[in-house]
Automatic annotation (TrEMBL):
The keyword Transcription regulation applies. GO terms for biological process: carbohydrate derivative metabolic process. Residues 35-111 form the HTH rpiR-type domain. It comes from the Bacteria. This is Transcriptional regulator, RpiR family.
Length: 346
């Protein structure tokens, strides 16, 4: 199929099919569109410049345009060329304009099932929203981000990384700001199953530690945007020292990702003060949990022994309790019981 050809679009109430001139269906161009096209554009926009960012901004503003415009028409609308549009499609992970249109159509099919292209899942909360509305928006945002991250995670890569970490001499983990919490959490988990590791949340200490790594070490940099300068510096320093480097971020084309040997990519909108932005830690935890469990599988006897030992060590510091049934638990959560507890606390 020629790149400048214009596939026929058949739109039904629920489904969209794109057919090329030779009659093959959209599955001929199948790509992993689990991560929404608009989501992908928003994540990669900060790394784009010139004509590429111009096309991206146009498509974020008019996400259905590819279903209505040929490649030449889109080029005219954005003041670029057909060749530039093709390069843009390749930049965001598609082989050309036709597969890109398939991705947009797939997104539309999913969002149509949710009643609109832009649903409450990604909207910003407002000052007049009820607590129930805020909770619903948060739940939907978190659920979508987790589902999209699960779809985009490279399981073969994750298994490979788990094996490398299991055989490594030491693991360094870098994170600044909000990602510092995640770095510490990952360090705690790996250490409990017998992995020698250290987390760095301050650039001077991080650079010092990074410079001491070697070819038997693994260095992991965590940044949702992939643009945190200190994390980039620490990961690069570890790479220069010989360590295998891993980036955990939301943007596969970010500076952090491009600085690493391996990339773990999550999926969450970067929208300041919007619910999707609050999902960043949830999807990072999902990726970290998966890595942790795959790593435990690499040496299951040691992992279970380590976890049992740590559980026994802290057991004396926990108050004894009795098991309660689900019915008893629900009874304790009834409005009447909650009100009674509030009165007792008053």
């Amino acid at each position: 199929m020629y790149e400048n050809s214009f596939p026929t679009t058949l739109i039904c109430k629920k489904w969209i099919f794109i057919v090329d001139f030779e009659g093959s269906t959209a599955t001929h161009f199948a790509v992993d569109s689990a991560v929404g096209v608009v989501n992908r554009l928003k994540a990669q926009l900060p790394e784009m410049s010139g004509a590429m960012s111009k096309i991206a901004r146009y498509l974020i503003e008019k996400p259905l345009a590819p279903l209505e415009l040929s490649i030449k028409e889109l080029a005219d609308e954005t003041g670029t060329s057909a060749a530039t549009v093709t390069r843009f499609c390749r930049l965001i992970g598609y082989t050309g304009y036709a597969p890109f249109r398939v991705g947009v159509a797939s997104d539309l099919g999913r969002s149509d099932a949710r009643e609109s292209w832009k649903t409450d899942i990604g909207r910003a909360f407002g000052p007049d929203d009820s607590p129930r509305d805020v909770l619903s928006t948060l739940m939907n945002a978190h659920a979508r981000s987790l589902q999209e991250t699960a779809a985009v995670l490279d399981l073969r890569l994750m298994k490979n990384l788990a094996r490398r970490i299991a055989l490594s001499e030491h693991v360094d983990i870098y994170g600044i700001g909000g990602s510092a919490v995640m770095a510490k959490e990952l360090q705690n988990r790996l250490y409990r199953i017998g992995i020698p590791c250290h987390h760095c949340t301050e650039v001077y200490a991080g650079l010092t530690s990074a410079s001491l790594q070697n070819s038997q070490c693994i260095a992991i940099g965590i940044s949702n945007t992939g643009r945190t300068e200190e994390t980039i510096q620490m990961l690069r320093q570890a790479g220069l020292a010989g360590a295998t480097t891993v980036a955990l971020s939301n943007n596969p084309n970010s500076t952090l990702a491009e600085s690493a040997d391996f990339q773990i990519t999550t999926s969450v909108h970067e929208q300041f003060l919007q619910p999707d932005d609050l999902s960043a830690k949830h999807v990072q935890l999902l990726a970290m949990d998966l890595l942790y469990l795959l790593l435990a599988q690499e040496n299951f006897p040691r992992a279970t022994s380590q976890l049992a030992a740590s559980a026994m060590a802290v057991a004396p510091h926990r108050r004894p309790g009795r098991a309660i049934s689900a019915a008893e638990h629900m009874a304790r959560l009834t409005p009447h019981s909650v009100d009674r507890k509030r009165k007792n606390l008053a």
